[in-house]
Amino acid sequence: MSVLVIIDTVLIALLSLLLLAVLRSQAELIRHLNAAEPGRHGVEEGDRVESALPRLRPDATPAFDIAGSTLDGGSLKVSPIAGQATLLAFLSSGCLTCQAFWQDLSGAAREVLPLDARIVVVTKDRDHESPSRLRTLWTADVPLVMSSRAWDDYGVETSPYFIFVDGHAGRVVSEGSAASWGQALSLLKDSFEDLALTGVDVGAPDERRKES
Predict the structure, then answer these.
(1) In the chain, what are the domain boundaries?
(2) Percent of the chain residues topping a pLDDT of 90
């Protein structure tokens, strides 16, 4: 009996060591996967933000109206395809990297943007945000709409993220992340200069939309 007890004890110890090794390997694999896909978990403070507002094919991505709510709980609809150009700023109350954007939101709104565009802030729905925190961050001279549906429609997976919509053509002209308002606005202007070199007339009415 004592021999069987010793054998059982050794087997249990070996199985425990094997299980511990498997768990460690799984944890290491998950850590590497997370590091390879930072956009899935948002941008944390101190992370490097790249690929700010790259130029896209001007007719590649359609834009959508945004329906959501205000901080007071009322309904709000923003139409980036109604003619006026719009820079959609996808921000969050819990995103550390977004704090600098919230702080200088009024200053950014006074900047002269391409096509005299307006800035509209888009957050997720109330169950994903802190309305009380947003009240301390938001400035009333910039429209804010809470709409998780808009994040899905535009394929936004992280914040801060910016999408520039040509209101006349109803299409996305440029999109991407940036580390500051200065960088976002500068790269946005650069993308328009790049489009001008290709002969693309951004801001002109889209004949296809008129026909439809």
Answers:
(1) 2-36, 66-211
(2) 31
> pLDDT averaged over the chain?
75
Categorize the per-residue pLDDT at 61 as very low, low, confident or very high, splitting at 50, 70 and 90: confident
Instruction: Name which residue leads in pLDDT, 68 or 193.
Output: 68
Cβ pair 56, 68 in contact under 8 A: no
Fold classified for 66-211? Glutaredoxin (3.40.30)
pLDDT for 77: 94
CB of 189 within 8 A of CB of 110? no
The whole-angstrom separation of Cα 146 and Cα 47 is 26
Under a CB-based contact definition with an 8 Å cutoff, are residues 78 and 202 in contact?
no
Distant-in-sequence, close-in-space partners of 174: CB < 8 Å, separation ≥ 6: 53, 54, 55, 56, 163, 164, 188, 191, 192
- Dump strand ranges (E) for the chain: 66-69, 75-78, 86-90, 118-123, 144-146, 161-166, 171-176
pLDDT at 161 over 60: yes
